[in-house]
Design brief:
The protein has 6 helices and 13 strands. By secondary structure, it is of the alpha+beta class. It has 2 domains: about 110 residues, Nuclear Transport Factor 2, Chain: A, CATH 3.10.450; about 100 residues, Nuclear Transport Factor 2, Chain: A. The strands form 2 sheets. A 7-stranded mixed beta sheet has the order 1-4-5-6-7-2-3. The chain has a 6-stranded mixed beta sheet with strand order 9-8-13-12-11-10. The two termini are about 25 Å apart.
Amino acid sequence: MQAGPVDPGVLGARLRQQTQIDDPITGATDPLDVEARSALWPQSPRWALLELLHVCDGGARRLEEYRFIPDAAAAATAAATATVTAAALPQFHGPGVPVAILFERSPNGASRARVYSADGWVEQRASLLGQDPHLRIGRSPDDVLERYCVALRAAQLPATLALFEADAYLQRSNGEVFQGHERLRAYFADRYRSGGIELDACSRLDDGARTVLETCRGAGRPALTVYERGKAGRLAAVRLYH
């Protein structure tokens, strides 16, 4: 889809309809509390523009990927105050802060949302979901995502790179982009210095074009990753959120 601006009021109204929102800054609470306390509320004066970049829709879950572009004057004013809602912006690359909102509808029609963004909003975020040991990560046992997780776990750099298209990119939660095999090699070589990466899968959303995994790592640290496949079946894009 083509990136385009969204009305913050419309997004805010949708969020107010949720039974609960799990926000990086406030934790799991009711929408009015998130609106009052979170800098990530879409109608916060710190944002000059909100852009919708990607959507992954499947059954009871829908993921919307945004870019929240700061208002320079409002951000400077907020950073000079000491309120929770005026928390300083985390460091980010590009024109705006990456934000992903996953809406999940229960069988009775009620909906809740989980918000993911750059990892600099809080020092530590509590686990959002429990691990699902029966969850299949890929579409089949030999799917690229299954092989990717094996390579991550074993810290196998050549095997990891072989799973990416030549012009693929990985975007960190702060918006920094590593595109092409040389840049990806540098990224994963740095990540593998401390050993392999274990991803404990919690939920999966797949609409045919994208696969979205919610995971927990380390001490339950939550993350959401969006995977796109290329024409050759390898990974064309990986976007991380925390």
